[in-house]
Amino acid sequence: MRFKLFGFGKKKKKIEEPTEEEYGSLREERNAESAEVDNIIKNHTYFERENVDLKNDAARIAYLERLRDTIMEGKHQCEEVKFEYGRVTSYLKDIQLIDQAQDEDRAKIYDSAKRIVELTEIRKAIRHKRYQITEPQKKALDRFEQDVPHDVEKLLEFEDLQVKIRGDLRKLNGEKAYLSSEKEDINRKQASLRRISKVLAVILSLVAIALGCLLAYWEVDITVPFIATAAFAFLIAAIIMAEARKNRVDMAVTEKKQNRAVFLTNRVKIKYVNNVRALEYLTGKYAVRNATELDFVYSQYRDAKREWAQQREGTIQIEENHEILIQALRAIGVRDREIWFTQAKALIDPSEMVEVRHELNQRRQRLREQLDYNTGVMTECLNEMDRIRMKKPEYEADVERVLAQVGELK
Questions:
Q1: pTM for the full predicted model
Q2: Is 242 inside any structural domain?
Q3: Would you put residue 232 in left (φ > 0), alpha (ψ -120 to 50) or beta?
Q4: What is residue 5's predicted lDDT score, i.e. its pLDDT?
Q5: Per the domain annotation, does 147 fall within a domain?
Q6: Tens digits of residue pLDDT in 165-216
Q7: Range of 305's domain?
Q8: DSSP state string for 157-214
């Protein structure tokens, strides 16, 4: 996956080998994150609509711009995923070409691959096996050795970002819960004011009737009680109106904050899904659990290579058969020919080829899910824009102007 390198020139973070307990904790954490992302993708929870007053021009335009930004983020992620998806697809097409090769070509491929495997096994037997590298890790490092320093830095960056993203999600979920509670509290206050208003109206009505009876039947002077009652009623009404107005203002402010929290949650969720998938992809690429293990394995691998450089018996024959294999693969149209040198066993062992194909299909499925998720985010945002466009004709110009900024995505 093409990831940009940030922090060029910065001092490299020293990595220490974690304990088995730390490995277990990290594995559980990664599995939980992966399950959560799988659930997000499975349930198609691409986008959470904000509660925006579309009649307010500033709020409407700001909402459309936020939708635009979300679309651009999804588009950027799709471009990143498509590149790696194309590479994996190319590997699978090469396997299909090998399976469909003519008997003569298959014989050349089989013989050269078999000789490579035999010579490689002999060379392995004389090596001093004291390096903590598994076979899948070695194969991965053989294929992607040039990418390892860059990928270690990116994996560290993704792990640090994952901690920040989880913290942001916790804070945003807490803020959304708090704001929902605030809205319920404001609604309760408004309901209480309405009940108080009704009770006071009844009391004032009864007082007015009583004063009317005193005036009509006993001709008592009710001027002072009447004025006092009217003043009291005016004071109470003013207090109720002031409280009601304050509640309306508080509700507007709370809804604005809630919309902001929803928007930020949508943005952070996109980063969360893509960051988890990036972590899964890089750790799966090298058969490691985290950046610490990758750096440790890579260090072991480099030390081992220096020793292996002194044990080159059979190298010339291996290279000769390697060239024969490359020519045979070129003859049938295989594009990524070099990788089969490190996976020659798959060319002579059908079960090994099945494993290779299965691994590639799994990687492609993960990339496909990530691509579908980001496409779903963009589609939901575009649908939301279409919904706003259909509300009123005057909204269409705002939508078109914002969509024009997305470029060819429109």
A1: 0.55
A2: no
A3: alpha
A4: 30
A5: yes
A6: 999 989 988 988 888 888 888 888 888 878 888 888 787 788 778 777 876 7
A7: 29-183+277-409
A8: HHHHHHHHHHHHHHHHHHHHHHHHHHHHHHHHHHHHHHHHHHHHHHHHHHHHHHHHHH
